[in-house]
Specification:
The complex is a heterodimer of chains A (about 220) and B (about 10).
Chain A: H1 3-25, H2 34-47, H3 58-80, H4 98-110, H5 117-132, H6 134-142, H7 148-174, H8 181-206
Chain B: no helix or strand
The chains are: A mainly alpha (about 220), B little secondary structure (about 10).
């Protein structure tokens, strides 16, 4: 495992921890898109079906279980927790996320590494992950005051994506037969979606003012 | 090139 991959996994892990911290200690999910969290729960459920068929490493298995468990519990908290669910910005979080799933499924049926159930689900999870952040970015644009934890959550997620791109470049040049076009293209699309947000995030950080996105 | 097939990334 190279340093980019490890750093990518760790920033991904931290992003989830930041979100759980916000939910557990502050008992608030203000500014967090349930739509995006539901998409992530679906992304990890469909991608990690190979938990039952392929053993890669203890690290791999534990991380998969963490991402599965955390994404499902975040959705549960936002939907059902007596206190947390009251802070959910339901009226602002209106992105019709189910509409993203059908094109992703069709694309996965057409473009996959092999036409098997696991491979189609794997491709579907990558296409869906690429666009899963969209409801969150839309919610951020609508929410006037973005708290630090929400900003840090998205920042960490973006860092995770960028580090994975560096990891692919590194692996391409150091490993033989390391080619994953579906992962790369959908990963780059996903990373580009964050670029716009980061532009405003760093501007506000540079000027030391609260993050405010244009309408 | 062919894919290695092993999906060890998260």
């Amino acid at each position: 495992m190279n340093i980019f991959r490890l750093a990518g996994d760790m920033t991904h892990l931290f992003s989830v921890l930041v979100l759980l911290l916000k939910i557990h200690t502050i008992k608030s999910c203000a500014g967090i898109s349930l739509k995006t969290q539901e998409l992530y729960a679906i992304v990890f459920t469909t991608r990690y079906l190979d938990l039952f068929t392929t053993y890669i490493s203890l690290y791999n298995t534990i991380m998969k279980l963490i991402f599965l468990g955390s994404s499902i519990s975040i959705v549960w908290y936002m939907r059902h927790h007596k206190v947390v669910r009251r802070s959910y910005d339901k009226d602002q979080d209106t992105f019709r996320h189910y509409l993203l799933m059908l094109p992703c499924l069709l694309l996965a049926l057409l473009i996959n590494e092999k036409f098997t159930f696991l491979e189609v689900m794997w491709a579907f999870s990558l296409y869906l992950e690429a666009v899963a952040i969209l409801p969150q970015l839309v919610l951020l644009q609508r929410t006037r005051n973005i708290d630090n934890l929400t900003g840090q959550y998205v920042l960490l997620l973006g860092a995770y994506r960028a580090l994975y791109v560096l990891n692919w470049i590194y692996r391409y040049f150091t490993e033989e037969n390391y080619v994953h076009w579906i992962t790369w293209v959908s990963g780059i699309v996903q990373t580009l979606l964050y670029a716009d947000f980061f532009y405003y995030y760093f501007q506000s950080w540079k000027n030391n003012v609260k993050l405010q996105l244009p309408a | 090139a062919e894919s290695s097939g092993l999906k060890d990334e998260l």
